[in-house]
Amino acid sequence: MKMSKPFRICLVLLLCLTLTGCQAARVSPSRQYNVWFIAKSTSTGFWRSAFSGANVAKSEYNLQLTICGPDTEEDYEAQNAFIYDAIADHADAIVFSSISYTENAAAIDAAADAGIKVVVIDSNVNSKKVSARIGTDNVAAGKKAASVAIDAGYDSLVIGIVNFDLTSRNGQEREEGFRTAIKESGIGAEIYTINVVTDIEVAKEETKQLLLAHPEINVIVGLNEPLAVGAAEAVAELGLGDSVTMIGMDTNVRCIDLMRTGNVSALIAQNPYAMGYMGVEACYELLEGASYDPDVWIDTPTILVLEETMFSPESQRALFSFE
Fold it and tell me: What is the pTM of this model?
């Protein structure tokens, strides 16, 4: 009996959160497809987890898989070069997470025009030629982060948002969701946003300067893994763990350590392993004749991990994902 798409998605997400000793049956496609996975970077825990999921799908579907990404999450030109490398390599499909919503669009269009199936994960690109989109509902993730600030018990909020490049779609959607939820809560709030390069040390120094310039800040939010680490380290080094509610995205081990010491109040845990697995799986299915609705974002849900819930089984599975 063929499973419905929603049921299969739920099953994949469940498997990505539970270690088992079982190995899925190998699929034999009509030929070995050539798939490229072009990420935002290759250095963070988030992307290492995504690559682990992708490699499992590669083995299960008997695919050739090339994994690559730039050194920094600002280098969209390097991503474009990788896209054209994939075209030259006669790739059958590309799994892609966009650094720039606009500046990566022409290269992705060129790949699609060359007959390559494009599956976007994590961060969207401004192309109507993408075949499928998979990842976090970033607006909802931003609202989930805002719920922590709203529930922190302050009479009024003074918030510092540490965000990344203005052209990166997922960061802007997270901030949009955060701001919307704060506004809808009715709590008075003043919000300062800084946009910094995706680098832990830069984020730490910029967050320190923000906190020193505005000592009234009582909430800090870091909207991706490196920025969350940098912001959390700034809070810790300034000794503000008792007076500032620190909220971060993703589950870097440094943030987990700082949560144990009270310097991080909450983490919004994504599921990059599922994104990687489902991205490669979608490539295989598209190449075998399946179709997706590219206008419907296939959501990989987030989990809110609080300082007081971090040792629950669900939180532990989210915090210590596959790598």
Answer: 0.86
